[in-house]
C-alpha cells in the first residue's frame, strides 16, 4: 500500500480556473477520472461553447495527473505532444475526463483521455510525456 497522498502536493492555480472537482484513481488498470465544472467565463459564442484550449487543458491535466499518481508523486509529466480530436461542442457545466496510460517507461510515457459531458463524448486526446523527477 502506498503512502502517497496527492492532496498533500501543491495545487496549481489553473486547476481552480478549470473548476477541478478532484479525481478517482484506479491503480489496478492505470486509469483515472478527473472531474471539472467549467464556468461561462471559459466560453465563446455568447457563453454557449467552451473554448477549445480549455477542453485541451482538461484532457492534458487528466493525463498528467494520472502519470503523477502512477509514479506515487515521484515524477512530473511534461507534455511533449498532445493530439486532440474535437468531436462535439461542450457547454458550461460538469465534465469528466477519463484517462489511461498506454505505455510508461523510465523517461517517456504515453497516455490517452476522453472528455465527457452528460455521458456524451466531447473530445479525445493522446499525449507523449517526458518524465522528470519532482524537485
Summarize the structure in words.
The chain is α+β, with helices and mostly antiparallel strands and 135 residues long. It has one domain (16-133): Thiol Ester Dehydrase, Chain A (Roll), CATH 3.10.129.10. It contains two helices and eight strands; from the N terminus they run H-E-E-E-E-H-E-E-E-E. The strands form two sheets. Strands 1-2-6-7-8-5 form a six-stranded antiparallel beta sheet. Strands 3-4 form a two-stranded antiparallel ribbon. The protein starts with 12 loop residues before the first helix and ends with a strand.
What key phrases describe this protein's structure?
alpha+beta; Thiol Ester Dehydrase, Chain A; 6-stranded antiparallel β-sheet; 18% helix; 50% strand; 135 residues
The CATH superfamily title:
Hotdog Thioesterase
| Gyration radius from CA atoms, angstroms | 14 Å
Measured distance between first and last alpha carbons: 23 Å
By CATH, the architecture is named: Roll
Q: What is the global morphology?
A: globular
Amino acid at each position: 500500500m502506498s503512502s502517497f497522498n496527492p492532496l498533500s502536493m501543491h495545487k496549481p492555480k489553473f486547476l481552480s480556473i478549470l473548476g477541478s472537482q478532484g479525481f478517482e484513481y484506479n491503480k489496478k488498470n492505470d486509469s483515472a477520472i478527473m472531474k471539472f465544472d467549467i464556468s461561462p467565463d471559459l466560453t465563446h459564442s455568447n457563453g454557449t461553447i467552451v473554448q477549445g484550449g480549455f477542453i485541451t487543458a482538461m484532457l492534458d491535466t487528466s493525463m498528467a495527473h494520472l502519470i503523477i499518481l502512477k509514479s506515487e508523486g515521484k515524477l512530473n509529466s511534461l507534455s511533449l505532444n498532445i493530439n486532440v480530436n474535437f468531436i462535439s461542442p461542450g457547454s458550461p457545466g460538469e465534465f469528466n475526463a477519463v484517462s489511461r496510460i498506454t505505455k510508461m517507461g523510465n523517461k517517456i510515457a504515453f497516455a490517452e483521455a476522453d472528455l465527457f459531458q452528460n455521458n456524451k463524448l466531447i473530445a479525445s486526446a493522446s499525449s507523449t510525456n517526458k518524465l522528470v523527477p519532482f524537485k
